[in-house]
TrEMBL record:
The keyword Signal applies. Keywords: Signal. This is Amino acid ABC transporter substrate-binding protein, PAAT family. The lineage of its organism: Bacteria, Pseudomonadati, Pseudomonadota, Gammaproteobacteria, Pseudomonadales. The keyword Signal applies. Belongs to the bacterial solute-binding protein 3 family. Residues 32-240 form the Solute-binding protein family 3/N-terminal domain. InterPro entries: Solute-binding_3/MltF_N (IPR001638). Residues 1-21 form the signal peptide. It holds the Pfam family SBP_bac_3. SUPFAM superfamilies: Periplasmic binding protein-like II.
Length: 251
């Protein structure tokens, strides 16, 4: 009988291990090139880094690309396990657990080239109309300031075209994202805009793991461990080079 019980116990363990190995983490992100985009190499830089770290930690992954609002809703409902590209905000901690930083985004203001707007303090921003992408978090001070004249838009392309058409005074975006998207805009848009000196903020990029996943703490710990290991063994830098991402120019 004891041998039979041991055999049954071993079978249960093997079945559980097989089930865990077959289970996939459901990754999600919105299109945000050059970081996340299904049309880019390995889904973009951020997707590649996150997938590599999670697979090194022993997870299998399934990636879905959806609009931002749907990605956040799916994470809050537990239909997705991991949001790939999240900037920190207190509000988001209600639906997910953040990892440590794995990339750094520098947000910069953009103006029309002929505009006389120069370096601005936060208070000086109050007198300008600023196009912002709906649902994005830029910095705590900027996001919470009700005196700012924010004009919500669907995406950066809409924002930059509104800026070029003189419908707003400023817009803002991560520098890498802005440069990537500006390269695809018509000359009459691209040539009319430029970055303001300095940066509004530097935002750390994280994964956000749904609190609906009972293993969210372990997933975050495993991810953070592997990111550190990737930086130590050169894998992280190799992925940066693979995606042609160089250090941003000095301000």
């Amino acid at each position: 009988m004891s041998q039979l019980l041991r055999a049954v116990g071993l079978l249960v363990v093997l079945l559980m291990a097989h089930a865990n190995a077959a289970e996939k983490l459901r990754l999600v992100a919105d299109p945000w090139p050059p970081f996340t985009d299904a049309l880019l190499l390995n889904g973009g830089l951020a997707t590649d880094i996150v997938n590599t770290a999670l697979r090194r930690a022993g997870y299998t992954t399934l990636y879905e690309q959806v609009p931002w609002a749907r990605a956040m809703l799916g994470l809050s409902q537990g239909r997705h396990d991991v949001l790939i590209n999240a900037w920190f905000s207190e509000e988001r901690t209600k639906i997910g657990q953040f990892s440590a930083e794995y990339l750094l985004n520098r947000v910069r203001l953009i103006k029309r080239r002929e505009s006389t707007i120069g370096t601005l303090t936060h208070e000086q921003l109050h007198k300008y109309m600023i196009a912002v992408v709906r649902g994005y978090a830029y910095s705590p001070a900027f996001d919470s300031d009700t005196l700012l004249q924010k004009v919500p838009v669907q995406n950066f392309s809409t924002a930059i075209r509104m800026l070029a058409a003189e419908r707003v005074d400023l817009t803002l975006e991560d520098e890498y994202v802005a440069r990537y998207n500006l390269a695809m805009e018509p000359d009459e848009v691209r040539d009319r805009v430029e970055f303001l000196p300095g940066s509004l903020s530097e935002n750390s990029l994280h994964i956000l793991v749904s609190l609906k996943n009972p293993h969210h703490e372990k997933i975050v710990a495993d991810f953070d461990r592997e990111i550190a290991a990737m930086k130590a063994d050169g894998t992280y830098d190799e992925l940066l080079r693979l995606h042609g991402l160089q250090a941003p120019p000095e301000l």
